[in-house]
Amino acid sequence: MHRNILICMFWSLALAGCLRLDQPTDVKVTALNDSTVVITWKDWAKYEDGYLIEEMHGKMPFATTSRAEADAERVEITGRESGETYRYRVTAFKGKDQSPYSQVVEVTLPNPPPSRVAAAEAPMGLFATAISVTQTELTWVDCSESELGFEIERSESSETQWSKAGEVGSNVTKYIDKELTPGKRYLYRVRSMGVAGPSEYSNQSSTLTPSTKTIKVLYPNGGEVIKGPELIVRWEADPTLGGVTIYFYNDEKFWYKARNWAENSGVYVFRDFNSLIASKSYKVRISGSDPTFYDDSDGFFEVISETH
Q: pTM (2 decimals)?
């Protein structure tokens, strides 16, 4: 009887020794950067479920901040505050049982370089130019020394409804916005992006992409001298324009509206030369409802004052 009890006690002690959770040793902590620490230790435990890493910061007591798998000897902890001091200790666990704690190690995270925390300055001199019916070129002045890049925003309807058009890297001062709608006005703004957050916005600049619609003056031809009592103007225009207006103008910026509204294609006979200035050269401009859609490349005439 006593012999059996002794045997059971022996195997119980032996099993407890095999399952004992030994204390981790040689714990070290290193600041990987201004927000990340790496903790390492020596694994001596057998049959553990894993490791608990406890952290103390400021006046707060130790609390579990991370876990590691069994047989692990390293863990990385991110999201810590630069310039702050943290203390750590490690313990092995199995179920609810824990080993003795390791020694306490301490680390102070470095402060980030000044260039990374300095607020980025807003760009200036934003200028938008339509370079095709579907593309706009944006240029601006880089006023910041700490930006990580620039964010370009575009508005199609108002100054309150903005969407991201694109982004470029640091020190880049040009962007081409593509796949736009022909004949549409766009408003742009740009801001610098930095670690500390975005800058204020630049000035706003707008542009109108050219229309694919066309207006062509067919007559008179260049240099036509008008000696008779009338001028005949023929034209063709895109049918979606909804009508055109006919103007005459000279180099002295004298404008005369010859016809307030006309069909998209047609013929107009002009006779009221007394409304124009004699001995002046004029161009014909036929414009759609949007004055940016026009053609005056083949409409040039001169008014002659004849003596009798």
A: 0.40
